[in-house]
């Protein structure tokens, strides 16, 4: 398998992964300097650095590198069985450089209305990959969208089932007329993400939460939903609301949400 093709595929799909490269070998070791292995968040691998228990440790360290966004050189000792004595003795050592692949945070916007459109345009300016999901073909086929915004047209929940989620995933729910907000939230709530927010009045949000609790959704999951969404910066136009939402998202991205002093939108 050409590992570079897998690296490119992961980058194109914006899928989190870490690359492990053997940089030093001493004694008896199962791989050579330059051997590479790609690790994704689920522990799937492409390529190999030698197999066995050491490779299992490399997978663990790779997932940690993805989660913590840190790179480093790790030392791994090999043990082999002495045929005569039946004892475990040192069989060599490898040093492996593990680095998370750079991906841009993904912002999934369910709803391509005025707020969703404004939010997508601002998001790409501050370093997000914006994906707008809507079931209205005529809306997504208009020329209002920048080329860098990805557009997905179809059933909201069906698309939500197929998206790539993870620690760099941000979700905003603002379907037209709020018709599908509950369906989307139900589909996304148990996924892996950094942020999930939903537009709506307190009464509407309370109704949706109660409905989902009745369907077995844990209250702890619902407590993660940012709603009312955005920060109260005073504006009420779609563009101003979009600014308030992206401000909240940026705060969460940099783990500053607990320091926010501004009141939430009502």
Q: Explain this structure to me?
A:
The chain is α/β, with parallel strands linked by helices and 266 residues long. It has two domains: 3-100, no CATH class; 106-259, NAD(P)-binding Rossmann-like Domain (Rossmann fold), CATH 3.40.50.720. 34% of the residues lie in helices and 26% in strands. It has helices at residues 3-12, 52-68, 114-125, 137-140, 156-162, 181-188, 202-214, 219-222, 238-253, and strands at residues 17-27, 36-40, 45-47, 72-81, 88-100, 106-110, 129-134, 150-153, 169-173, 195-198, 225-226. Strands 8-7-6-9-10-11 form a six-stranded parallel β-sheet, with helices on both faces. α3 packs across α9 (238-253) and α5 (156-162) packs parallel to α6 (181-188). It is elongated. The relative contact order is 0.11.
Q: Topology of this structure?
A:
Blueprint lengths: L2 H10 L4 E11 L8 E5 L4 E3 L4 H17 L3 E10 L6 E13 L5 E5 L3 H12 L3 E6 L2 H4 L9 E4 L2 H7 L6 E5 L7 H8 L6 E4 L3 H13 L4 H4 L2 E2 L11 H16 L13
Parallel strand pairs: 6-7, 6-9, 7-8, 9-10, 10-11
Antiparallel strand pairs: 1-2, 1-5, 2-3, 4-5
Helix pairs in contact: 3-9, 5-6
Per DSSP E runs of 2 or more residues, the count of β-strands stands at: 11
Strand fraction: 25-35%
CATH superfamily of the largest domain: NAD(P)-binding Rossmann-like Domain
The poorly predicted ranges are: 261-266
Q: H/E series, N to C?
A: HEEEHEEEHEHEHEHEHHEH
Radius of gyration: 23 Å
The assigned structural class equals: alpha/beta
| CATH topology assignment of the largest domain | Rossmann fold
The dominant shape is elongated
Number of domains: 2
* CATH classification, class level of the largest domain: Alpha Beta
